Amino acid sequence: MTTIIAIAAFIAVALVGWFVAEAKGKYVTYKNNGQEDAVLEQNRRQLEQNGYNEMNIKDVMRTIATTGYSAV
């Protein structure tokens, strides 16, 4: 009997936590201030200057070895 109560309590706590997380994600927004925007822009410029480019999934699959042992 106590096991059933423990499982029910665990499910209830999990559902409440899930509800809180969903509500927070839907109603709480975050906006960067001017200083954070300046730092992000500086980091972006520095990455571009060093030749960084973001790859999509096709580029990743083309450049990595996915053939198992023959890749070694």
What descriptors fit this protein?
72 residues; mainly alpha; 3 helices; flat
Outline type: flat
Spatial separation of the terminal alpha carbons: 56 Å
Low-confidence stretches: none
Described by strand count, sense and barrel closure, the largest sheet is: none
Percent of residues in β-strands: under 5%
Number of helices: 3
Strand element count? 0
Global Rg = 23 Å
SSE ordering? HHH
Which percent range fits the helix content?
A: 55-70%
Q: Structural class of the helix and strand makeup?
A: mainly alpha
What is the residue-mean pLDDT, rounded to a whole number? Answer: 86
Written account of the structure:
The protein is 68% helix and 0% strand. It contains 3 helices and no strands.
SSE blueprint:
Elements: H1 2-27, H2 34-49, H3 57-63
Short description:
The chain is mainly alpha-helical. The protein has helices at 2-27, 34-49, 57-63.
